[in-house]
Design a protein that fits this description.
The protein is mainly alpha-helical. It is built from six helices and two strands. The protein has a single domain (about 5-100, about 120-150), classed as Up-down Bundle (Four Helix Bundle (Hemerythrin (Met), subunit A)), CATH 1.20.120.450.
């Protein structure tokens, strides 16, 4: 079982990394951000958009108990608009993470898997771990894409995100 401190630590890391990535990506021409690099979500822009879409899906689930599946298509074609929304969502994740009770994390969550439609049972903490794992996984892909584009992201280590 995870504890509320995990949620807050990961929310801080998430916000820090997103700030770093969006700051770096803002200096890249839009055409380059949207260039098909043969990644799972094609481009840097597509990957950033996917992470945001899934974060919105998970937030709806953890805050309102409404499990939803990823909406089809891209949410944002405009980078500046996506960046503004990313900041808002990171603030929302941070606010939520600062209030999540331990008992809630241990509660049972039942769902039908979107692939085979069979029922599953996990804890709410499982979904929180999945949300943060998903972010980290795709940001790792982004750092590779950015490196291939000649950009230097610097350290992505979690300990670097700890407030001084």
């Amino acid at each position: 079982m995870i504890l509320p401190a995990y949620c807050l630590t990961m929310a801080r890391y998430n916000a820090w990394m997103n700030s770093k990535l969006f700051g770096l990506c803002a200096a890249i021409p839009d055409e380059t951000r949207k260039q098909d690099l043969h990644a799972f979500f094609r481009s840097v822009h597509g990957t950033l958009d996917h992470i945001l879409a899934v974060d919105l899906m998970f937030l709806r689930h953890v805050k309102h108990g409404e499990p939803t599946y990823l909406p089809p298509g891209n949410l944002y074609s405009d980078f500046a608009e996506m960046h503004r929304r990313r900041i808002e969502v990171d603030e929302e994740i941070l606010a939520w993470a600062g209030t999540v009770p331990a008992a809630w994390l241990a509660e049972t969550s039942t769902f039908n898997h979107h692939g085979d439609h069979l029922p599953r049972q996990v804890t709410r903490g499982f979904w929180v771990i999945q949300m943060f794992n998903h972010q980290t996984h795709h940001r790792g892909q982004l750092t590779t894409l950015l490196t291939q584009l000649g950009q230097e992201i610097g350290s992505t280590d979690m300990h670097m995100s700890v407030p001084r």
